[in-house]
């Protein structure tokens, strides 16, 4: 056990631990190269109005196109990027790419970008958001930053101040994965979020658990009374769509409407929607 070992103590690791540490270090190096070498790409998943089934926004989701392992999902490498501090330049790259993509899309589409705790805590964060908006020409009101509760757990005052600064500039702030942390509701009192994204675990359990639909209903009610838009994540079936619509949520995101897609595929979806009748500006 390395834990508790004093300075200068020789630590003996289990062979497989050593292996694990080595593989992780290798991955860390590869990730650094991927970021500078253009091997990261953004896919975009539609955020859809539950009533009209029209796209209102797109969430940027990063992928790593690995030469041997194919497309690697963020769940595999975002934690490593967070541990190594690489999340700051990686997050900045995501922000710039996403704003540039959105600036090419029609003005009625917003763009949602995930922000890690470490990134938000980084002193230059608000300035880097402004720089990304300025460089792309995207209106601040079209940018939504997605924050999870864990972000607010650390350095709360500093983080809240940064969020307030961004919000004053017109950027919107969403609470992501609502209901998975310890104190989701208390954070709604501390910061005026623009949107609550109800975690997909509640939708997954909809058929099996009466509690899940009661919780969705309660959160939608809470959002309505606070003037916060509610979106339900992970809608995969028509039955789930009907159920969350019945609870009064305004937006959804999920494989039923569309998985995350490449920019070229999104161009096609947006063009089809623009060509459709009755598109509100
Ligand atoms: P998230 O922000 O909650 O994003 C939604 C995740 O749910 C995405 O996974 C999406 O593909 C998945 N999803 C959407 N609809 C469905 C559905 O109907 N069924 C199922 N089973 N899954 C669905 P993805 O792309 O693997 O991203 C995972 C997480 O990685 C994200 O969760 C976010 O926390 C993080 N992430 C992704 N891109 C970035 C990034 O650029 N920066 C940071 N800091 N985190 C990122
Ligand atoms: Mg998100
Ligand atoms: Mg989420
Ligand atoms: Mg999630």
TrEMBL record:
Residues 24-274 form the EAL domain. It comes from the Bacteria. This is Diguanylate cyclase/phosphodiesterase with PAS/PAC sensor(S).
């Amino acid at each position: 056990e390395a834990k508790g070992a004093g300075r200068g103590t020789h630590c003996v690791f289990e062979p497989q631990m050593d292996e694990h540490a080595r593989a992780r270090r290798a991955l860390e190096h590869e990730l650094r190269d991927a970021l500078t070498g253009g091997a990261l790409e953004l896919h975009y998943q539609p955020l859809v109005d539950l009533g009209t089934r029209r796209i209102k926004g797109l969430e940027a989701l990063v992928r790593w196109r690995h030469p041997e392992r194919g497309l690697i999902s963020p769940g595999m490498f975002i934690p490593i990027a967070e541990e190594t501090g690489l999340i700051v330049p990686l997050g900045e790259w995501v922000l710039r790419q996403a704003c540039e993509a959105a600036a090419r899309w029609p003005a009625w589409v917003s763009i949602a970008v995930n922000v890690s705790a470490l990134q938000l805590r980084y002193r230059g964060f608000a300035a880097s958001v402004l720089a990304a908006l300025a460089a792309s020409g995207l209106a601040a009101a079209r940018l939504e930053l997605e924050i999870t509760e864990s972000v607010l757990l650390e350095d709360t005052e500093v983080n809240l101040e940064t969020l307030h600064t961004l919000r004053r500039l017109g950027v919107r702030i969403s609470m992501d994965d609502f209901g998975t942390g310890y104190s989701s509701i208390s954070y709604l009192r501390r910061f005026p979020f623009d949107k609550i994204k109800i975690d997909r675990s509640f939708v997954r359990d909809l058929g099996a658990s009466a509690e899940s639909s009661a919780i969705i209903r309660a959160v939608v009610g809470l959002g309505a009374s606070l003037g916060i838009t509610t979106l339900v994540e992970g809608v995969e079936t028509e039955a789930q769509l009907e159920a969350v619509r019945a609870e009064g949520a305004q937006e959804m995101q999920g494989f039923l409407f569309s998985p995350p897609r490449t920019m070229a595929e999104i161009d096609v979806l947006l063009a089809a929607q623009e060509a459709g009748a009755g598109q509100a500006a």
